[in-house]
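Section 3.1 - Work completed
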Amino acid sequence: MSSDKSIQREESASFNEHSLSYIRQAAEYGLYEIRGMGAKRRVPSFDDLIFLSASASRYPLEGYREKCESKTVLGTRYAKQPIELEIPITIAGMSFGSLSANVKEALGQAATQMGTSTTTGDGGMTPEERESSKTLVYQCLPSRYGFNPNDLRKADAIEMVLGQGAKPGGGGMLLGQKVSPRVAEMRTLPEGIDQRSACRHPDWTGPDDLKIKIEELREITDWKIPVYVKMGATRVREDVKLAVKAGADVVVIDGMQGGTAATQQVFIEHTGIPTLAALPLAVEALSDMNVLGEVQLIISGGIRTGADVAKALALGADAVSIGQGVLVALGCNHHAYQRADGEEVDVTGDYAKLGTAPGYCHHCHTGQCPVGITTQDPELEPRLIPEVGAKRLKNYLQVLNMELTTLARACGKSNVHHLEKEDLAALTVEAAAMAKVPLAGTSWIPGTGSV
């Protein structure tokens, strides 16, 4: 045996501390880990792309004098009343149950102030959410919890959810501590009992049934409002084509960096493909079906900054949808919550009780959110005041759109929807191959034969 102590202390690449901890926990408890948020592993992302902004060969626009338009229209294929938004940044579906009623109200207020849409999520529509939201997308999920035809007619669009980026092929979870009397009543479930959502819709088994379901939804709403189809990013090209064939007005693709309130960690880290890889595949599918521009494309999963939004649009998305970033803007993982008078109250101790710290918390599933976001606890929920949260979220969305238009003008565009692949280059071979843009400093796109 070698006497070199440095070799004896060398960590195994396969059985590192993370792997050892996982095995020990599985052996001790016989249970898989459930958590919230999204994938923690590093995957190729929009951070691996850069803009080739204007210089001599391209003419930039003056930021103070030349306007850059960001208006966005969704649902132009069949709907009599397409959605018209001021910005191409929407708020993703997050349920009442996983989030508090105060949070849902704050989302609606902020979306209305910014001229964009928000989305219901599993468990139905709350009156506060509908009243505060000028434009509200109503989700139809496999569980059908809280699904109500009367609420459907109050919606401005419908989103048929087939999957989610954090857990494609799996259903949602709402643990018993979050099934409050109100949540239980809306979902027709027993109070305080763990709830699992189905992983597929109960009344269809394939694309033909999806077409029938979309037609039913259109008939209920008199063909007035758009129908979205949302899918987790897996077999993107095939899935998008089937959604288009079934009659979708809008296709939503959610990459693996997307978040969730609660699911098995094995789903979060080991299913789906990165958003960066999914987006070009979806665009290619729409092009193959000759519906580019007719069927709109929304991309989601790990969108955080205005640069992310700009890169998504340059790669062919019509809009983006944000979930985790929205919650962070409200105060998720912050060390304090804000009172109505503006004073911050430190809750570092509450994070410690959960065995975590601000910036590292993924305990959405517990219902013990220290800042009052992912909770139904009557003592914790008031920590998020709707008006305070809405102001923070409006500021965040405003900054994203300012960054988006700034980058578009720098590339010589008078409309954010004029951004294109030619405005991008990749910093890594992997990102170049996934995004199908040249590696920076070359004309080489890996996998295409272009050099």
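Second construct:
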Amino acid sequence: MLNNSNIGLTWFNIVLEVLHNANQITETAAERGKDQYAFCSVVKVRHQDEFENFLSECNLELDNFYYGLLSKEKKWEDLWQVVKLCFIFSHGNASVERGFSVNKTMLVENLKKQSLINHRRAYNGIKSLGGVENVSITKRMLLAVRGAKHPYRAGLVRKKEYLDKKASKTQEKRKLENELQQLYNQKRKIRLEKEKKETEFEEKIQILEEKKKSLL
């Protein structure tokens, strides 16, 4: 959607029409949502890194990801309403199951997960255009192919940074858990020692009370 604004806008208009016909949004909200679709151009300037990190790391749910981008600014209010409605659509399993057969034809030995995802993106993009003969080979596309090694290396760097950060968090978490366990053990030890001393004092008091009674 972000790479081909015309196709994205066409699909978005279809979504708006479906929601409006189903009485899920008003005509005014649909018009405002269409105007706010300009958010896609803002993404290229302000949020490109966030989208690239999301696509490469996938460590955040899609609804939470868009919530962080759209919900906090009132100017995207109607667009966020449309996006929320899309998130709660009941899609069923048919499209997912159809995708299994497509994935099967793409699987080769040692194929990485991200490579399969990118293959599917290319496949879906070509399919949405109606076939490979309808794909326009633009100058931007040629430049992207020639410079493919740079984003690949950048992706490896981001992945390494993500894994290092994750490992650091895991190590820090394990350290905190050990410190907490030590404190719990110390607390338990202190409590047991306290109970032991209280028992000893109670026994001494009882002995003295009995001696006192014997002297009466």
